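Why predict the complex rather than its parts? Because the way molecules touch one another can change local conformation, and only a joint prediction can capture that. The input here totals 678 residues.
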Amino acid sequence: MTSTTDDPAATAGPPGIDPATLHRPDGSVDVPTQLALYRQMVRMRKFETRAYDLFMENLVKGTSHLSLGQEAIAAAFGEAMEDQDYTFATYRGHAHTLARGTSMTGVMGELLGRSCGVLSGKGGSMHLTDVSHGVMGSYAIVGAHLTIALGAAWSAQYRGEQRVAVAFFGDGTTNIGAFHESLNLAAVWKLPVVFVCENNMYMEYTPIGSVTAVANPAADRAAAYGLDSILVDGNDADAMYLTARESLDRARSGGGPSLIEARTYRSSGHSRADPGKYRPDAEVAAWKNYDPIVLYRTRLVTRGVSEADLDAIEETADGDVETATVNAKASPAPGADDLLRDVWSDGGSSWRN
Amino acid sequence: MAQLTYRDAVARAITQEMERDPNVVFLGEDVGGAGGVFKATVGLLERFGPERVRDTPISEQAILGAAMGAAMTGLRPIAEIMFADFFAVCWDLVANQIAKSSYMTAGQVSFPLVIRSGNGGGLRFGAQHSQSVENWAMAVPGLKVVAPSNPTDVIGLFAAAVRDPDPVMFFEHKGLYSSKGEVPDGEIVDTLGSAKVLRPGGDATIVALAAMVPRAVAAAEALAQRGIEAGVIDVRSLVPLDTQTILREVSATGRLFTVEENPRLCGWGAELVSIVAEECFNYLDGPPLRITTPHIPLPSADALEDMAIPSVERIVTTIERAMQS
Ligand SMILES: Cc1ncc(C[n+]2csc(CCOP(=O)(O)OP(=O)(O)O)c2C)c(N)n1
Ligand SMILES: [Mg+2]
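Output of the joint prediction:
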């Protein structure tokens, strides 16, 4: 067992943030879990790096939103959640979907618009869903899925099931009405739901501070709903994991909702090929030095995990990404029979007799 | 058989379905303790308790989001949006989320839910509390759209909607809540997508929906006095749409008149006319004609609102003139 708080890499804190304001969860993360977290983050990073290349080759069409640099958050919840729990993600949801165990081929195929995609090519990168792994959807209208997560949590509560719904969203999402409606109703009904704000400091191309009345867009609003203000280092996989466990335990034991604001940074652009030029160079550089995977690797090595073990995780992930790419490229495009399917639950799309 | 108001039929319908299936839950603003602003849900809270009948804050997005999330995880929610005009503040959930997610996920999720709402005018509520918006819903693939005209249909179609595996927009007409009808005893279950021929007629076919149905029937009676035999069809369900019944009747009479409460453009009747034009053009003896509210917001003053919404008199004179020309 190792503690998070005695580690220099953990206490340095994210750039520009007073470490004293950060939530320091109790407890420690054991090495097997740490290796699992590392594996998760590496898979996400390598998958999305490949997805970007395929976008530049015009094999991924339309749009794509990467969460490069934000991996610790999805990884932490992926490890902390139980099989029966529900994930509600955004258009920036590749990592959150992979974190629950969805096949890479299924996700890659969806990005490429192939029939091996998890949605048979009908949803695309912004709508990844895999109910068999608890991924209840990825939503592309800002804020909507927070309300939908309420319903999944409500149905678990109604049946007395030990399930938690987790909704991931960005800093920009805290300024839409659905966020506030969701926080209020979750608190009033004491729903087993965790709201995870990934504050990457930008809503598209606008710095969040310039359009938000408070400094911490989620944490500073928590009090309005009778919730604890939780600001956590979103690039520290251990702190994220322990915070995730706390909130999931609270929800599962009837303690109601949590709102977590995880401070992080997306190292790539908002979407597609956005170079992110609207961000100051010094800011980009500072966060580049605070990369969650690099930090974590250093920490694990410091704690005695062998470089060889970590390299093996990376190599396996490389192989998985390559296999997924080959599979997806080889998969046929969806056919005409898919076009008119599944509007209704009888499988069809008929609206008249 | 018993006389029942349209309003009491709503409560009976919800009761029937909640008693049958413990997965049916009900949420909305003022639906429980207050029994609904139209008093259409009186007694449900007392009967089923606060776990199944949930009063919500004024959060239309959260109401529909909660219904959606509950439906995709095994419940069969009934959500109330108090006035159909309020769909404008939560249309994302209706049009982008609930309607599309089955298709987008290649059928991984389905949404057995009913959204019921007070629709329509005639109550002098003005432009933001009087609209007939069933055509908003009809324009979105993935929604079933129902609008009953009488108490028995309220119960039967509502039961069908709750039991349907897909999302159903259930438009109750505010102007009909106090209307009465004979309702059979016992369980009533109807089928979605079945229009009803209320009155046969060899000269013309009038197709109407919700509050326009009683007016169409009254107009047909008046027309009969003047020697024109007009049949009346209650569409009841816009999606799925019973085109067979309508095409059959229109082919027999050769004339189609729609009576629509919605403002003119893109009303359901326009779709019907296009179907008739495409599929039974050769049987028509004259142009199909739509009798609608003008393309204006609804005014509040009774004198004005009565001029706007199709009246029995307007239906009669329009049809009479068309049949004579
Ligand atoms: C209701 C709505 N408004 C605007 C958009 C366009 N849009 C897509 S992503 C985005 C920024 C969201 O920012 P944030 O919540 O911080 O999430 P991030 O993209 O940074 O992960 C915007 C404005 C949208 N999809 N939905
Ligand atoms: Mg952001």
